[in-house]
Amino acid sequence: MTAWRRGPRWLRVVLGGLAGLVSAAAALGAAELVSAAVRPQSSPVVAVGGAVIDRTPAPVKDYAVRHFGTNDKPVLELGIVAVLALFAVLLGVIAQRFRRTGCAGAAVFGLIGVLAAWSRPDRHRADVVPSLMGALVAAGVLWLLSARLTPAAAPSEEPDPLPAPGGTVTGPDLLAGPGPRPAFDRPAFDRRGFVLAATAAAAASAGAGVLGRTLNGRRGAAAAASRETIVLPRPASPAAAVPRGAALRVGGLSAFTTPADSFYRVDTALVVPKIDATTWRLRLHGLGVAREVEFGYDDLLRRGLIERDITLTCVSNQVGGPYVGNARWIGVPLAALLAEAGVRPPSKGGPADQLVARSVDGMSIGSPVETVFDGRDAMLALGMNGQPLPFAHGFPVRVVIPGLYGYVSACKWLHELELTTFDSYDAYWVRRGWSRQAPIKTESRIDTPKPFARPKAGRVPVAGVAWAQHRGVDRVEVRVDGGRWHTATLAAEDTTDTWRQWLWEWDASPGGHTLEVRATDRDGSTQTERRTGTVPDGATGWHSVVVTVA
To answer: What whole-number distance in Å separates Cα of residue 330 and Cα of residue 237?
Structure first.
């Protein structure tokens, strides 16, 4: 068969790659639809993404948070889809010559989703079903499309016609000339059939994907309805009013109370859990617990609640970073809840020194029992800034322990509390190289002027926030170009568990300048100049900003 009858080689490669992409899209669409009958977390992209996060070394995770911020999850999902697309194109091209091999590769790639789903700490048996269905659909669609691209068996070339009696060639054969004559009535491959099949598969996969997303979205309707009906009771111990002067009126300065929709979110959940508060349960068990206890959401609401302003900080926060925020939390005192179950801290003979909080998404966070009982306002938080917790911040219940980085204190979407020991169990992040215990370090940040700002010469307000939770900020100092330190004016203190705003008026002269800040806490400890990364227990160093004064 001649090349032009087979079609250009590049065209077959392009169509083969397209067949692979359509097959992958069909697999994802089918899997998304099936996941609606299982749960959103069983979607192959989510399962694989979760498995990738689980196996990401701490420095890589820190790099992702530092460079992509709260967009690290969309970037991960986009990367997974990109790898899938490249692999699908390759399999589509291979299937043009080796159809069984290509289709088997599609099935094997789907099995990766199965293994990822089964490896998740919060796995359910049915979580493997969407990936299995996706694998079968991918193999089937690729087989169908590659069949349309496979050329029909090359026709045998027709020999020269036998001469008519008398030795002459008659009729149209006279025009054909001597030699083999190709048969023109057989197409090289079924282009029309391919286009129709690919279009149908693409449309079906898009429809399945949209329907699956819609159904998955409706799964959270009951949870949303349960949240909307909640009226938080007046706390038995309300927070004091924020003191006058705690919030400075300086442009560009972080608000004293961070709105919920602006509060930082750093976690491993690719899909935010939507939990129905009416069916939610909390299990309390482990060493030193007199008897296992189970609580419902209403059980917690009926208890005496406390309300406190508390600043939370993520251990992934770089010096001067954004992963710190202050909110008014309302919840159940954690120490009292544990004490009722018979739990005692180690200092009073209790056998457990670690409280492990587990989330519905498989996250585990270990906190020191002694810290929970030392008098600080550790709580099971139900509300944030006067409203039930937002879904993204842990609804219906999360843990809040002032003074500890979030990875050892702030479990969201809580469903289990276990008393154990640090020697017998390492929580999620500890197994990945982070420290078992991590009190928040004294830090400060310049909010204004912004990096590379161009303020005018003269009086320039330099302002920001400083925090040293459960110790309190005693002093903030600013210097310019490595000169002497100037004491900033501190805003009024709310509590030792909240950040403090500060302000220094700078008589700025024209030219480029470097501003630096440091804080000193009530224990007399001043921030170290030495810069370290976030791993294993939080970053250190002075925040600096470079500006050019006009």
So the answer is: 9
CB 283 within 8 A of CB 398: no
Q: Which two tokens stand for residue 12?
A: 């077959």
The single-letter code of the amino acid at 231 is V
Per-residue pLDDT of 204-238, as tens digits, reads: 999 999 999 888 888 789 899 999 999 999 999 99
Residue 292: other Cβ atoms inside 10 A = 10
pLDDT at residue 165 greater than cutoff 90: no
Q: DSSP readout, 293-327? A: EEEEHHHHHTS--EEEEEEEE-TTPPTT-S-EEEE
Length of the chain: 550
Which residue is associated with the tokens 């197994």?
A: 431
**CA–centroid distance for 502 within its chain:** 33
- Cα distance between residue 292 and residue 342, in whole Å: 10
Instruction: List Cα–Cα distances, 143 to 61, 94, 107, 113, 348, in angstroms.
Output: 39, 12, 11, 20, 68
The Cα–Cα gap between 391 and 280 comes to: 14
Rounded to an integer, what distance in angstroms lies between the CA atom of residue 44 and that of residue 32?
Answer: 8
**3-state class of 6 per DSSP?**
helix
With H, G, I as helix, E, B as strand and everything else as coil, classify residue 204: helix
Residue 7: predicted pLDDT: 56
H or E, element range at 84: helix 72-94
Nearest to 360 by CA among 280, 260, 263: 280
| Eight-class DSSP state of 178 | S
Range in 95-104, 306-315, 382-391, 487-496 with the lowest mean pLDDT: 95-104
- DSSP letter string over 30-77? HHHHHHHHH-GGGSHHHHHHHHHHHT--HHHHHHHHHHHGGGHHHHHH
CA dist., res. 149 & res. 9, Å (int): 12
